[in-house]
Design goal:
By secondary structure, this protein is an alpha+beta fold. The chain has 2 helices and 3 strands; from the N terminus they run βββαα.
Length: 72
Amino acid sequence: MTKVVIIGIEGESGLWVADLGAGTVTKAPQMAASTLEIANEPNSTGAAITKGINLAVVAASAESLSGGYMDR
């Protein structure tokens, strides 16, 4: 079963689609008045919405994750 994660990042407009099965992350197409776009509106004011997320961390680069900087 493919698992897909929709990601909204603070300070960035629009949403991202991470397809865990395919190993890809792509910009979500702009969807006028879609449920996801409406749900993403609080992101512009700094609100966070999580559903089914056990851990989420924003890092500057993949190297900072693999270097162990995020585990302290």
